[in-house]
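REQUEST ID: PR-0412
SUBMITTED BY: lab tech R.K.
PRIORITY: routine
TASK: structure prediction, single protein chain
INPUT:
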Amino acid sequence: MTYVSVVTLVAYGLLIAVLVAVAVKDWRTRRIPNGMVGLLGLLWVVWRCVLGFAGKHMGLGFWSTLLSPAPEVLGRIGLPIYGVSLSGGVLGALVLGGGMLVLSAAYELVTKRESFGGGDIKLMAVIGLFLGWERGLVCLLVACVLSVGYALVAAARSPRDDQSEGPRDPFLARTMPFAPFIAAGTVVAFLF
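STATUS: complete
OUTPUT:
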């Protein structure tokens, strides 16, 4: 395993660790702190710069390594995680963050109800940096399917109070955390 592969594997491990912390925080408080999302963005910038300096050290050139796709990791054990180029990451951030922002604004305009929070949108934009737009869409699809499945199971399991018109589950009466499902979607997108 080369130095750049180790750096990439460490970056992905840190991404997953911070995502777990974000998911727990969102689950408990229904908030995603900007500092945690900023930490993920900083991790991406540092990782890309370290890739560039590693490439320069290996004789490949700073800019060529910085701009090219990150190396594949874990391929030898049958779990290849393919890297994204710098431009692919920026495009992923724009597609995922911008797409979620537009969809959320349209949904709120039509229904007059909140959909995704700003933290979810920023988190998906940062995830797009790491995954690119193709795997980022896989992440978003998995997150949506898991969150809808969870909401359906929670609604079916909660006792019905025939006198109330609100949701049966007090958990569902509030906003639902989406970061845990984004974290799960990220892992699925990395592996598949």
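NOTES: DSSP finds seven helices and no strands in the chain.
REVIEWED BY: pending
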